[in-house]
Amino acid sequence: MLEMKRKYYTYMAALCSLLVYTSCDKEVVDISGTETEKVPITLSASSLPVSVDAQTRAETIEGRTIGVVAANTDETTLLASVDWSDYYLDHVKASGTNTVLNGEKEVAFSPAQYWPFNPAEYLAFVAYSPYYGTNGDSRVERVSGTNTLKVTANGNSFPDFLYTEPVGPYNKETAKAATDKAISLGEFQHAMAKLDIQVKLVDKDGVEIPAANFPNPNRLRIAELRVSTEVKNGEFDLLQTTSPKAWTNLDATGPKEIVRTHISSLITLTATLPTYTNCFLLPGTEEKSYVSIKIQELHPTTNTVVNEVLREAKITEFEVSSGVGAKLEMGKTTLLTIKVKYVPIPDPDIDVILEGQLVEWDYKGESTVTIE
Questions:
Q1: Which of 165, 168, 295, 315 gives a 20 to 30 Å CA spacing to 353?
Q2: What pLDDT is attached to residue 77?
Q3: Cα(47)–Cα(166) distance, integer angstroms
Q4: pTM
């Protein structure tokens, strides 16, 4: 009986040893220098372009949500022939950081993503910002089953939508040999048009009035400054091969919608007003996009409105040169100048401070276009 029990214990011990060994064998996958080595996917991207021109957008990807697409491929397949529906990373969220890798900024995953174990398996990448999915930007949605993003002016604004060109193929050995073990996605580029607006006080000849010659006391106020459009959404294919890139399925149905409110309460019209910026519109929609402004002149004692000018104009009504209207172009900033004419009224009594009269707004003001 004692002998039988000893065999039973011996058998159980051997079985437990086998179970422990088998479990450990499944866990050991990260063996450096072997096919089963786990290599994290580390990506980087160029900051958005910086120029000495004041109207060029100078930004970075830091703090941006980024959608990353990785497709399975091999070493010899050209990018144009990659099957982008064979997903390895199917629109996975990443974040732009301030960490410098290979002279660029890191695009970080959380949780980490890893390269395929097999060195014969390669990946091609493309990316965009902002990300469309959970904890992303509600103004961006994915057209089901595609790599096309639909961008909509929800919440009274468009996002500054960015994209990269497809890159690859790369495998884990490429990544291990790269500087900082980082694969570059390239440069994020602007897919939207940006609209900046300046408001200037000018004399009867359209010459800007210097600050020293402003009416004193200054009772001129800007009550409203808004941008609106009839085109509320469009679609952008990340993998389009057309040059230049283009938006499709632009939706101009329904009434126009405000996409940027720069001013909604009274501010004094001064010589030091900032350039009103960070308004984004779909490229090519200048005939269906508008700027509106309301200027008021207040009574000197009661502060009631004694004169008001309200004007709205299409983007094309702002002239770049005689007879040539402004445009909204992909990756460019269009700067519009609104000229408010203020004409002094002569008074025979030289002891009385001259008053002023607000007259027509010159909506065919100056316009400049700056390449990003």
A1: 295
A2: 94
A3: 17
A4: 0.81
